[in-house]
Amino acid sequence: MPRKKKENTKSVGNPQKEIDWDKVDNLLIAGCNGVEVAERLGIHPDTLYQRCAMEKGTDWSAYLQRKRAKGNSLLREKQYHQAMVKGNTTILMHLFRHRLGEWEKVPDQEVGEEKENQFKALMALLNDIQSESALKISNINVSEEHKS
Fold first, then answer.
1. Rounded to two decimals, what is the model's pTM?
2. Is-contact 96 121, C-beta < 8 A?
3. Contacts of 137 by beta carbon, 8 Å cutoff, 6+ apart
4. Residue 53: CB partners within 8 Å, gap ≥ 6?
5. Which of 76, 68, 9 is closest to 33 using CA atoms?
6. Euclidean distance between the first and the last CA atom of the chain, given in angstroms as a whole number
7. How far is residue 39's CA from residue 116's CA, in Å, rounded to a whole number?
8. pLDDT, tens digit (0-9, with 9 covering 90-100), for 22-59
């Protein structure tokens, strides 16, 4: 007599762990990589990458790039706000150098009068920009108070 086949009602392996994609997004925006994210979720990185493809319809590299770009833009926005609105001259100089490519190497032992005058003019320009920005903000605040 042939043996009856048992119906297999049990799944093989561990149950699939839920992935909190909001948490994944926040970690990626903060600059974490896939291994770090997987560790925080308590899963293997390969599992994360495979589930990204299945659940998000994109490969891990593209997903990470989009979230990392969002984090970068948030940092740049905050940096710009600190420089232009809050008047942080250190950040303003950093933005000036990076965005306008104004990196200049001057020998330590000698700074000529021309370079010193250029620096003073630049600092005066930055001061004017900050003053204008502060004035605009105060005008906006005053007009908002009148609307209330």
1. 0.56
2. no
3. 85
4. 59, 60
5. 68
6. 90
7. 52
8. 999 999 999 999 999 999 999 999 999 999 999 999 99
Contact 52, 63 (CB under 8 A): yes
Q: How far is CA 73 from CA 24, 30, 68, 78, in A?
A: 18, 11, 9, 9
Cα separation of 68 and 73, whole Å? 9
Q: Could you list the mean pLDDT of each consecutive 10-residue stretch along the chain, which spans 148 residues?
A: 59 81 96 96 96 96 96 90 84 79 62 80 84 74 65
User: What b-and-e string marks burial along 107-142, b requiring 16 or more CB atoms within 10 Å of the CB?
Assistant: eeeeeeeeeeeeeeeeeeebeeebeebeeeeeeeee
Among candidates 98, 78, 89, which has minimal Cα distance to 123? 89
Radius of gyration of the chain (CA): 28
- The residue count of the chain comes to 148
